[in-house]
Design goal:
The chain is an alpha/beta fold. It folds into two domains: about 150 residues, Response regulator (Rossmann fold, 3-Layer(aba) Sandwich), CATH 3.40.50.2300; about 170 residues, Rossmann fold, CATH 3.40.50.2300. About 45% of the residues lie in helices and about 15% in strands. The chain has twelve helices and 13 strands. The protein has a seven-stranded mixed sheet, sandwiched between helices. Helix 2 links the parallel strand 1 and strand 2. Helix 3 crosses helix 4, helix 5 packs across helix 6 and helix 7 runs parallel beside helix 9. The protein is elongated. About 5% of the residues have low confidence.
């Protein structure tokens, strides 16, 4: 290569390297400047929060997020303006809201559930606004660019927590509570990636335990009770429900169908015992929301989402319902050790233990 070309190439290389350093330096400076601007007296940050449906665990997650934000210094009405959105279970509405959120000039986007994560991540693909998510079973399978193998490999503006429900432990507990359990029904929406991830584990666990798994599809909340009745008609010993929004919204109708057949409903979404489930082994969704809100607060305070790994978060919550034992076919019981371990126990009249009520109020 001629000497002048070598000099030109070297010069271009140095210019490119210097530009990259300045770009990174400027990015950090802009992030710090944005954090300072958010902290200005009288300045309110704008936060948009989307949940997919009106359902107890999602409401708890939302309340936890608000509390977590406040713990990091961002209080609703004081220095934060949080706008709440709810798609009420409609995926098309979710996408429409997501586009509105992404174009709304907010300082931060928050989402609850996989469907909300997908909608907002797609609408905010350009990464103009930081996005923090929670209450998502398997974000790695959501198709939004999050790597299962490398927790730091994700879009630089997007981060959050993975909360895969303890499906295997839940099914093994069902066998412990009734050693005669041989045929189990499961109800889920095949359009929800989180439900598919849980069902994959359920199939493997049931196969290992020698339990026949009878599956039923519920494409939406209105069809769930009918789908439950169809599964129950196959002679199952219990009905198990994954963390599926469409199914959980229809919990009362599903429990009613199971009661007619004198079989229990088992879930991984506490506290479904309050709606008639026999037991729930899953996550404390208020606490997950709180930790998600704290993380979002850190992002508002200047922490770079690109440096935050998408990590697992699974604070266990076990709930038991003694009232639901009444009228069941023989074989179901709660061992004393399990009762002692539970965070929430409903007695034979459906009353909650004073300890559980006190702990719940203390968290709020």
């Amino acid at each position: 290569m001629p000497a002048f070309l070598r000099r030109i190439s070297l010069g271009l290389l140095l210019i490119a390297a210097t530009s990259a350093v300045l770009l990174l330096s400027d990015l950090g400076s802009r992030r710090e400047a944005a954090a300072r601007a958010r902290a200005e007296p009288g300045r309110q940050v704008s936060i948009a929060l989307l949940q997919h449906a009106s359902q107890n665990i999602l409401d708890e997650g939302r309340e936890g997020m608000v509390k977590g934000l406040a713990e990091r210094g961002w209080e609703q009405g004081r220095n934060a303006r949080i706008k709440f959105f709810n798609a009420e279970g409609d995926a098309n509405v979710s996408q429409s809201i997501a586009r509105q959120m992404a174009a709304g000039g907010h300082d931060l986007l928050l989402t609850i559930t996989t469907v909300s994560l997908q909608a907002v991540a797609n609408a905010n693909r350009a990464g103009k606004t930081p996005h923090v998510f929670g209450l998502v079973s398997d974000p790695y399978a959501a198709g939004v660019g999050i790597s299962r193998e490398n927790p730091l490999e994700h879009p630089p503006h997007l981060t959050g927590f993975a909360t895969m429900q303890p499906v295997d432990a839940s099914l093994r507990m069902a066998r412990e509570l009734n050693p005669g359990l041989r045929r189990l029904g499961a109800l889920f929406n095949p359009a929800e990636p989180n439900s598919l991830a849980q069902m994959k584990v359920a199939r493997a666990t049931c196969a290992a335990l020698g339990i026949t798994l009878e599956e039923g599809n519920a494409e939406n909340a209105s069809s769930a009770p009918e789908a439950a009745a169809a599964v129950i008609a196959r002679g199952v010993d219990a009905l198990w429900l994954p963390g599926d929004v469409a199914v959980l919204v229809a919990m009362e109708g599903i429990v009613a169908a199971a009661r007619k057949a004198r079989i229990p409903v088992l879930t991984v979404t506490p506290p479904s015992v309050r709606k008639g489930a026999l037991f729930d082994l899953g996550a404390d969704y208020f606490e997950i929301g709180r930790q998600t809100g704290r993380l979002a607060g850190e992002v508002l305070n200047g922490r770079d989402p690109a440096t935050i790994p998408v990590s697992p978060l699974m604070p266990e919550n076990l709930c038991l319902n003694r009232q639901a034992l009444a009228g069941l076919r023989e074989g179901w019981s709660f061992p004393p050790a399990l009762v002692a371990r539970a965070q929430l126990v409903l007695d034979e009249q459906g009353r909650e233990s004073p300890r559980a009520v006190a702990e719940l109020e203390g968290k709020r």
